[in-house]
Amino acid sequence: MLNRVRSAVAHLVSSWGAPPPRPRSPDRLHATSTPPAAPPEAPKSPPAGAGSGSGAPAKTTEARASFSRPTFLQLSPGGLRRADDHAGRAVQSPPDTGRRLPWRTGYAEVINAGKSRHNEDQACCELVYVEGRRSVAGAPGEPSRGQGLCFYYWGLFDGHAGGGAAEVASRLLHRHIREQLRDLVEILQDPTPPPLCLPSTPGAPGSCDPSHVVGPQSCWPSQKEVTHESLVVGAIENAFQLMDEQMAQERHGHQVEGGCCALVVIYLLGKVYVANAGDSRAIIVRNGEIIPMSREFTPETERQRLQLLGFLKPELLGNEFTHLEFPRRVQPKELGQRMLYRDHNMTGWAYKKIELEDLRFPLVCGEGKKARVMATIGVTRGLGDHSLKVCSSSLPIKPFLSCFPEVRVYDLTQYEHCPDDVLVLGTDGLWDVTSDCEVAATVDMVLSAYEPNDPNRYTALAQALVLGARGTPRDRGWRLPNNKLGSGDDISVFVIPLGGPGSYS
Question: pTM of the full predicted structure?
Answer without folding.
Answer: 0.83
